[in-house]
Amino acid sequence: MSGIRTLERTLQSYCDAGLIGASTERFIFFQKHQPGTALAKWREDISRWYGFEVMTDPGNVAYISFDRMAKKCTSDYIMFLEEDFLLVEPLQVVRQQLDNAIRLLSSGIDAVRMRHRWKFGSPYYSYNKKHMVQSQVFAMVSKMEDPEKGYGYRQSGSKLFIGDFLTKCVEEPATYCSNSTHVRFTTNPALYRTSWFRDVLGPRMYRPYLELEPSIKDWSVWKSGRYKLACSLGLFQHNRMDRSTSQADIDWWNQ
């Protein structure tokens, strides 16, 4: 019954830190769902216990589930969280980060990344050591305790500074903004305007699992820089209990 411990701990972290209470709608989507099995019953029961409306599909629909949930959502803002993203900040920080994100979205930002900058968890494999290019550096804010001093690449020794393509758009809580020319799309936690996600990204969710992120990165409209993205402290750490993640990734970052 893979995933049980991770899901239960994740949902409890959302409850403990006030995220469930702060939301007006809650959906949970299970793919490869087999009604009547012990696993299906447990998932349905625990989800409803935490106040989620259960959505299912018998097939492996991958991120099509994002589009289906967005179409069902009637709230102004929507956040997608996979089952292994644990909430690792207390209620006060949760409120601060959500308030900041909603202000940004209401003033023209299209997406606010919510994976934690310091406690991001393993793996952080999206940014291969051999292929670090400018379009990926926005996520490197997660390793920059003081981004204004720039981030020094281990291999090239070059530094990228605030102002080149990254701006500090909010002083407190410290928040950094860029456009989609320099920011790769990720299915990691992010808060969106629901209508924007439905119109812009929803139709692009119908891609095989491993092709989704690269297809949006290479999409001409995304590459043009039309969309604006932000990253603040964040709230969520990738943390599974039911299967191993990449310790090698942690070791590399700690060199």
Write the layout of secondary structure elements.
Blueprint: H1 4-16, H2 19-22, E1 27-30, H3 38-49, E2 53-56, H4 64-72, E3 77-80, E4 85-87, H5 91-106, E5 111-115, E6 151-152, E7 159-160, E8 167-170, E9 175-179, E10 190-193, H6 194-201, H7 212-217, H8 220-223, E11 228-238, H9 247-253
Structure description:
This protein is α+β, with helices and mostly antiparallel strands and 255 residues long. Helix content is 31%, strand content 19%. The chain has nine helices and eleven strands. The strands form three sheets. Strands 3, 4, 5, 8, 9, 10 and 11 form a seven-stranded mixed β-sheet that branches. Strands 1-2 form a two-stranded parallel sheet. β1, α3 and β2 form a beta-alpha-beta unit. The longest helix has 16 residues. The radius of gyration is 18 Å and the shape is globular. The relative contact order is 0.19. The C terminus is likely disordered.
Number of continuous helical runs = 9
- Amount of helix: 25-40%
State the separation between the terminal residues, measured CA to CA. Answer: 36 Å
Radius of gyration over all CA atoms, rounded? 18 Å
Return the string of H and E elements: HHEHEHEEHEEEEEEHHHEH
Strand percentage = 15-25%
Assembly state (oligomeric):
single chain
The tally of beta strands, per DSSP, is 11
Mean pLDDT: 81
Query: Class by helix and strand content?
Result: alpha+beta
Largest sheet, in brief, is: 7 strands, mixed
